[in-house]
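Dear Dr. H.,

I hope your travels went smoothly. While you were away I took the liberty of generating a structure for the chain from your last submission, since the lab meeting agenda had it listed for discussion. I wanted you to have the full record in hand beforehand rather than looking at slides cold. The sequence, exactly as received, is reproduced here:
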Amino acid sequence: MTTQTSISAVALVVRDYDEALSYFTDVFRFEVVEDRALTPEKRWLVVAPTGSSGARLLLAKASTPEQLAHIGDQTGGRVFLFLETDDFWETHAHLKSHGVRFTEEPRHEPYGTVVVFLDLYGNKWDLIGRKEP
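The corresponding predicted structure, in token form, is as follows:
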């Protein structure tokens, strides 16, 4: 018997829980998967694209100066997260209408249409619309 594993969540260090929650639910149209207090200062706050069965984002509030210093640059300037959509142009227009900054114009790659954008904190994301096989 083979043991099955998966990546269930990726921690994204944020400045403030409510600020991040509002951004990811309003701008990215994510849904709240779980939101519960662990201590008076700490929450277990998980969001994900609506209906997604893939990895989720754990919005983790920075609690030390070192963590604060890494908000927006968790990967040293590389694209950090990849958001796939079945309607690239609709998603692109929605993000743009909500003030999301794109670092380039959309481009066509062998796997589909892609563009790099920045989230609320400056983390780099790829928006990907895969080509139909």
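Two observations you may find useful: Residues 19 and 120 are 9 Å apart (CA to CA). The domain at 74-133 is CATH 3.10.180.10 (2,3-Dihydroxybiphenyl 1,2-Dioxygenase; domain 1).

With kind regards,
E. W.
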